[in-house]
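User: Quick sanity check before I run a bigger batch. Here is a single chain. Can you write out its predicted 3D structure?
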Amino acid sequence: MTDNKRLSDYIYFLTGERPGFSKPDSVSLSKLPLLILNSFEIQVIEFQGAEMFLAIQKNPVITTDSMIRQINRIEEILDLPVLLLPASLHSSARRKLIAARINFVLPGSQLSLPDLAMYLSERFKKRKQAEAELKLLPSSQLVIIYSILRKDFKPEVYSLKELAGFFGYSAMAFSKCSDNLEKLGLADIYGGKEKRIKFKAAGRKLWELSRNHFRSPVKRVFCCDLINRNLPLFKSGESALSHYSDLAGRIDETYAISAAEFRKTNNESDFTNYDLTEGKYRIEIWNYNPAITAVKVGKTDLCDPLSLVLTLDRIEDERLIHACNNVLEDYLW
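Assistant: Done. Predicted structure follows.
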């Protein structure tokens, strides 16, 4: 097999990812005409989550027009994009390849992916979609967190319709919630006309079972200098963490509001000096209602401790990580 180190180094330099190389299966090779096999060494190359064929020129006298026809033929037969690695290219040949929308690479010089860029984009979208399917819907996450925190709450006592009303969702939206929980293996759905949810675990075990499917409830964030105190706001972020733990030091004042409630507000009158990055207060817009699981400490309304930990899930500050771990110990163990 041809030495691919130079190509690998070049792609790594451009993309930050080293490609993988392998031999194509014999069935694929048997489909190609002898003319193509005499002109190119065919390999499989994989990078950026996509697999394609690599056509390495081995016939030094092949014309550019013939090369274009043969690359198109390979793609047509094998039904995958092809990346051409030519022996060399003068400027007029490069222009022809670009005009013909041929994917080609000259290590250390040029990587042209006119069609492959779209292909990789589609693969990325599909991968993101697959990842999304492994995550909890906001409604599903809300029900799980409520069930963990309210140990006397048994969702199986209620029909899906009753649960939908309690958590503030339509019957159709809550039907998607139950499907999501069942698909992820977190709950069983049973019953005839009035279906019900029964989780496969409770408390700490339910948290651990769901852990890889949770997502941050924060949809987006903005800042402001004054807030309307009559709004349904709940302390979040470091502000709430300082109530649940021994967190000390400089603390940003953060509040959470549901997306539905935020849509009812007026940015100018309810959030003075609205800004995306700077302000006295940091406002988180949540994709589920923090009021349902909120905790009241004295006169302070806090977002619940488990959702709070999920909002801080990607932090790297050791001080905050330690505080979050303490919160989980207090509320799960």
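The mean pLDDT is 89.

User: Great, the batch can go ahead then.
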